[in-house]
Specification:
The complex is a heterodimer of chains A (317) and B (297). Chain A has 317 residues and is mainly α. In chain A, 76% of the residues lie in helices and 0% in strands. In chain A, helix 4 runs antiparallel to helix 5, helix 4 crosses helix 7 and helix 4 packs parallel to helix 12. The radius of gyration of chain A is 24 Å and the shape is globular. The mean pLDDT of chain A is 81. Chain B has 297 residues and is an all-alpha fold. Chain B has a single domain, classed as MetI-like fold (Orthogonal Bundle). Chain B has 12 helices and no strands. In chain B, helix 10 packs antiparallel against helix 12. The relative contact order of chain B is 0.14. Classes of the chains: A mainly alpha (317), B mainly alpha (297). At the A-B interface, helix 1, helix 5, helix 6, helix 9 and helix 10 of A face helix 6, helix 7, helix 10 and helix 12 of B.
């Protein structure tokens, strides 16, 4: 176990370096002058040269990469060209909101997905299974940004029950678990939960059907174990994989929230990316993507370790 | 299994029985699957619509009319309403199929060729080559797909070509990974060993023995990605990173109609229905194809 843990952590280091390299390269695959958005149109060549030196764009690529990496490691992700504020501050303020949204969505999606998956797997090939499986296919095929729009049309525009956009009074900084704020979370979180719901339902259905078909289940039933007892055995066997899928989905949602955040104007990293792209604020784009990718690598690592800890079958192999 | 699908009469007439080919078995299974028939029909209609757009569409998709802005569904002359610039929605949806399908399908096709090549080379070569290629692929796995697509097209700048390029980069790693794992399993099989022992070169073995066995699973996997690709491609356009206005594309139409959800909500939601229908059809057809080809992954 410990050896595996060390191996996984050591293995993550080159991946992290690769991730950093890709993020670094993003600025350089971008066409045009990286300073274009800060420079006035009539800037003198002299001013341009001075800014090039200040931002470090005059050095060679390897040199720039090492300098950038060193600064990033010490928590300095550069300065946002558009707002003039440090990128790290902007990203960490937004990441909390995205985390909140993604976590709530994952929890909803996981519970519904497990429910549908269990029912479908238990009564496999019945109409219940067909209905639950159809729902799962719908969940993975729906363009979620469109689903978000439809929910806004129904619950905000037509019924007027829930607010359409934003994160409540006080904006991003003052989240509280009261109805005034919570009502803003419902629509985006439900929209977002559809993706993990479909995937979790598919996984759990396959797992449950597979476990129920195994000999040990027949053995348990022959021994006289009731449905509830068998159910616990199924849960125990399905849990590590289901939890792993949930962990990965949380990671995907963190990185993939940009479309839903745009629909609901949710003040998270997705909105930040949107701003960064349209104001050509490359340091902000780079910093946000780096932080999200790091989260994703870390979550993957965590999922692997937890799964190994939970599942004795993996430890043995 | 091949016998089961032949009508009993024919078996007696033709002796010896000619074994049925793999692909005709797959085709026969698909033909009996109502889900596959349904999804296939929808896709054929959509592709037909895209190809024959100039003849099918009742009006010019770019010609607006200031007095006909945001007409509801069922207005005379506008069977599916008019958009925020008074353009005929039906015509725009039909023309939109061109860009949307092209943007959704092309990246997967490119990625299929590039990813299979990379994966087969890595899987067949093994050793250091394999490690170098697969560890590089792992780096791209460290980005959620939406994030990678947005990051690349955000950095490259908005545009049709850049969106295609970004999506291709997103889909190469998963396809390469599948290709690598299938090839690795195959290379230690007896018939490959036998070919090697009888002096066949690497290229011959790959062409004769490997390709035929690995392309099936990779193909099925790639078809399952088209659904994701459709959603992502339209998503990029929705963010303003794909085709530029005034071109008709479903994702872009959703974006420009967002402001109209309080005035003509159901007209605004229409482009999404098209994306949904396409994506679900590809998903269902891919599932049917997987079971018809009897591939377990």
């Amino acid at each position: 176990m410990l050896r595996y843990l060390v191996y996984r952590v050591v293995y993550a280091i080159p991946i992290l370096l690769g991730v950093a390299l890709v993020c670094f390269a993003l600025v350089h695959i971008s066409p045009g002058d990286p300073l274009i958005s800060v420079l006035p149109a009539d800037a003198s060549v002299e001013l341009q040269q001075r800014l090039l030196v200040i931002y470090g764009f005059d050095r060679s690529y390897p040199e720039q990469f090492i300098l950038w990496l060193g600064r990033a490691l010490s928590g300095d992700l550069g300065t946002s060209i558009a707002s003039g504020r440090p990128v790290a501050t902007e990203v960490f303020r937004a990441v909390g909101n995205t985390l909140l949204l993604a976590a709530v969505a994952t929890v909803i999606g996981f519970f519904l997905g497990c429910l549908f998956g269990f029912v479908a797997g238990y009564f496999s090939n019945s109409w219940v299974d067909k209905a639950a499986s159809t729902l799962a296919v719908l969940g993975v095929s729906v363009p979620h940004y469109w689903l978000g729009m439809v929910l806004v049309i129904i619950f905000s525009a037509q019924l007027g029950w829930l607010p359409a956009t934003g994160a409540g009074p006080g904006g991003s900084g003052q989240w509280k678990w009261d109805w005034v704020h919570f009502q803003f979370l419902i629509l985006p979180a439900v929209t977002m939960s559809v993706i993990p719901m479909g995937i979790v339902a598919r996984t759990v259905r396959a797992l449950v059907a597979d476990i129920l078909a195994q000999d040990f289940v027949t053995g348990l039933r022959a021994k006289g174990l009731g449905d509830l007892g068998v159910f616990f055995h199924v849960v125990k066997n399905a849990a590590p994989t289901a939890l792993a899928v949930m962990g990965l989905q949380l990671g995907y949602l963190l990185g993939g929230s940009i479309l839903i955040e745009t629909v609901f104007s949710w003040p998270g990293t997705g909105m930040l990316l949107n701003t960064a792209i349209f104001q050509r604020d490359l340091p902000l784009l780079q910093g946000t993507i780096l932080v999200l990718a790091l989260f994703f690598v870390f979550l993957n690592l965590l999922v692997d370790v937890v799964q190994t800890a939970l599942d004795p079958r993996i430890q043995r192999s | 299994m091949a016998q089961a699908v032949l009508p009993p009469g024919e078996i007696e007439v033709e002796a010896p029985v000619k074994a049925q080919g793999y692909w005709s078995t797959v085709w026969q299974r698909l033909r009996r699957d109502p889900v596959a028939i349904g999804a296939g029909t929808v896709l054929l209609l959509l592709f037909g619509m895209a190809i024959f757009a100039p003849w099918v569409a009742p009006a010019d998709p770019l010609q607006g009319s200031m007095i006909d802005r945001l007409k509801p569904i069922g207005t005379e002359g506008y069977p599916l309403g008019a958009d925020e610039l008074g353009r005929d929605m039906l015509s725009r949806l039909i023309w939109g199929a061109r860009f949307s399908l092209l943007m959704g399908v092309t990246p997967v096709v490119f990625a299929f060729f590039i990813g299979s090549t990379i994966g087969i080379i890595a899987g067949y070569a093994g050793g250091i080559t394999n490690s170098v290629i697969m560890r590089t692929i792992d780096v791209f796995y460290a980005f959620p797909s939406v994030l990678l697509a947005v990051a690349l097209s955000g950095a490259l700048g908005a545009g049709f070509g850049n969106a295609l390029l970004s999506l291709t980069v997103v889909f190469v790693p998963p396809i390469a990974r599948i290709a690598e794992s299938v090839t690795t399993q195959l290379r230690s099989r007896d018939f490959v060993e036998a070919a090697r022992a009888s002096g066949a070169g690497a290229l011959t073995i790959i062409r004769v023995h490997v390709l035929g066995n690995v392309l099936g699973p990779i193909f099925v996997y790639a078809t399952s990605l088209i659904s994701v690709s459709m959603i992502l491609a339209s998503g990029l356009s929705f963010l303003g990173l794909g085709v530029r206005p005034p071109a008709a594309e479903w994702g872009l139409m959703l974006n420009t109609l967002r402001t109209a959800i309080y005035v003509q909500p159901w007209v605004a939601a229409l482009p999404g229905v098209m994306i949904f229908a396409t994506s679900i059809s590809f998903n269902l057809l891919s599932d049917s194809l997987r079971s018809a080809m009897d591939i377990k992954t």
